[in-house]
Design brief:
heterodimer; A: mainly alpha; two-stranded antiparallel sheet; 10 helices; about 0% strand; disordered N terminus; B: about 300 residues; alpha/beta; Rossmann fold; Alpha-Beta Plaits; 2 domains; 6-stranded mixed sheet; 4-stranded antiparallel sheet
Chain lengths: ~270, ~300
């Protein structure tokens, strides 16, 4: 058997496009077999919230924070959808692929690193979130929310926030020793965040500590940004909202990669 | 540039998990174009070694080289050139056979114009062409294992890692897979295969490394190891448990090695001198070597 010359010098880099593409192709092909249920759960839940609050609460109050209630909740609901279609699928699908399907064993045996794996999966969830995020807003249009050109920016805002929540969900899955521990994260962190985000009622009326907590909540910044995109931007304050969402995404991204490496590479 | 002779070269590899040392100073070579078997009882460190070769386990000490690339730093290049068949099935069960292959053609960076050809070729190798549209959860265990092998061959790897490739399969299915593996080796693919089926190692491997407690306790071609450690023939004595204990004592006095095989005692290295013990003479095998060296029976 002939000996083979030493390997070429070229080193493969981090975050290579073929590796990201490969992982995303896997997600897209799998999605073709479960898109119905996924789309249903990601869009129907927020739409129910929208209708329940819109009709239930909307009959008690006509105006909130200077907006018609349908305008207020119809834009805020985008953030709820982002959470539901970003964090939750990331948590569950990461855990299932890790613990039950051993998918990551197969992917990491191919020329793909953990960093690429996490990034590609989050990018795909982020793309989905950008689309799903608009669905309840479109429903709100039927119920009286006026369309505006600014709405065209909403998918991008939803995708940015969605990337942050996707990597945050992957981080939760990486920390979880059993799928049961998701309950702590959901009840202890995600549900309060979902409520204290200025989606259904403004933060102003809350006690000061809750207002401070609200301002640290990425969902709040997503809510504000979407409202301002639809009804008019407010200058630097929106730069701050974008900055907060970018920072949340970047920090969660690195943390998720760190913990996934600890879990996957022994 | 230095010429390499080995597809895999490990020197003094150590891997600890807490207080447990799973791999304890392992040396291992897989020369190009050969099939090497990693043989050992459960817990000997085989799976940890296999995982270290794809950098899914990072060794604490030692040198690892795969296809000329140093691990773990250049592991991604090495992974691009090798195929891996895992012990535990990790196919996408809700996808079809063809979709599974398509996904991995992307992951293994098969260029766009060659993907179709690669999928057809590997479907053919694995004899799954007429099951291409079946979902994975409709396949039998043997077909799923063949699909795993097909998946590992899409990018024409020069090195194949097979982790217990036939565990849990029917004897007939196992023989089909042996024929497939033998064919790949004859086409020049270098193979490292971990197994605890002795017969598998004897039939397929040019060399075997017997592992025990994380170390290589013997290395060589199966025939040579048998001749060296077990002698040309064994005498197998049957009888009551008391009789077997007596026979063991007798053999020990003469300096012969023995092993219990269920209802009998096998006397090894006696070179014909144990004929008077009224046993059946049989040809020695790799299992004798294995038990002598590791002190453990395998199933």
């Amino acid at each position: 058997m002939a000996a083979v010359a030493s390997a070429p010098r070229r080193r493969l880099h981090r975050l290579e496009r073929p590796a990201l593409m490969g992982v995303m192709v896997r997600e897209v092909v799998n999605y073709s077999s479960f898109w119905r249920s996924s789309t249903f759960s990601s869009t129907v839940d927020p739409t129910i919230y929208l209708l329940a609050f819109g009709f239930g609460f909307g009959s008690l109050v006509s105006e909130v924070a200077g907006y018609d209630y349908i305008e207020f909740v119809g834009t805020g609901i985008v953030a709820t959808t982002v959470l539901f279609s970003g964090a939750f699928p990331a948590m569950y699908s990461t855990y299932v692929k890790y613990a039950f399907q051993r998918t990551y064993d197969a992917i990491l045996a191919a020329p793909v690193d953990t960093e690429e794996l996490v990034t590609a999966e989050a990018l795909w969830i982020s793309a989905r979130t950008g689309v799903y995020g608009c669905v309840p807003m479109l429903v709100a249009i039927v119920f009286g929310l006026d369309p505006s050109w600014g709405m065209l920016l909403v998918p991008f805002i939803a995708a940015l926030a969605g990337f942050g929540w996707a990597v945050f969900g992957i981080f939760i899955a990486a920390k979880a020793k059993a799928i049961e521990s998701f309950s702590y994260w959901q009840s202890g962190l995600l549900t309060p965040m979902f409520l204290v985000a200025g989606t259904f009622f403004p933060l102003d009326g809350l006690p000061e500590w809750a207002q401070i907590a609200g301002h640290l909540n990425p969902l709040y910044h997503c809510v504000e940004l979407v409202r301002h995109a639809v009804f008019g931007f407010e200058g630097w304050i929106d730069v701050w909202h974008v900055g907060f969402l970018v920072a949340f995404a970047l920090v969660s991204w690195r943390v998720a990669i760190h913990y996934m490496e600890r879990k996957l590479i022994l | 540039m230095k010429e390499q002779e080995s597809a895999i070269r490990l020197r003094g590899v150590v891997k600890r998990f807490g207080s447990l040392t799973a791999v304890d100073g392992l040396d291992l070579d897989v020369p190009f174009g050969t099939c090497v078997g990693l043989l050992g009882p459960n817990g000997a460190g085989k799976s940890t070694t296999m995982k270290a070769l794809t950098a899914q386990v990072i060794a604490d000490e030692g040198e690892l080289e795969v296809l000329g690339y140093r691990l773990p730093d250049d592991s991604k290049q090495a992974r691009a050139l090798m195929g891996v068949v895992p012990q535990l099935d990790n196919l996408d069960v809700s996808l079809t056979v063809e979709q599974n292959l398509l996904v991995f053609a992307h992951l293994y960076r098969v260029p766009g114009g060659h993907r179709k050809e690669a999928i057809e070729r590997t479907l053919g190798i694995a004899n799954l062409t007429d099951r291409r549209d079946s979902k994975v959860d409709e396949l039998s265990g043997g077909m799923r294992r063949r699909l795993l092998i097909a998946r590992s061959l899409l990018h024409r790897p020069r090195l194949l890692l097979l982790d217990e490739p036939t565990v849990g399969l029917d004897p007939q299915v196992r023989q089909e897979l042996w024929a497939l593996i033998d064919r790949l080796r004859s086409e020049g693919v270098s193979i490292l295969m971990s197994t605890h089926y002795i017969e598998e190692a004897e039939r397929l491997c040019d060399q075997v490394t017997i592992m025990s407690h994380g170390k290589a306790v013997a290395v060589g071609p199966p025939r040579q190891l048998i001749a060296e450690h077990a002698g040309p023939e064994a005498v197998e004595v049957y009888g009551s448990p008391t009789h077997l204990t007596e026979v063991e004592g007798l053999a020990r006095d003469r300096g012969w090695r023995t092993r219990r095989t269920g209802t009998s005692v096998s006397i090894l290295q006696a070179n014909g001198a144990a004929a008077h013990l009224d046993g059946e003479t049989r040809v020695t095998n790799l299992e004798d070597v294995f038990v002598l060296l590791t002190g453990e029976e395998i199933t």
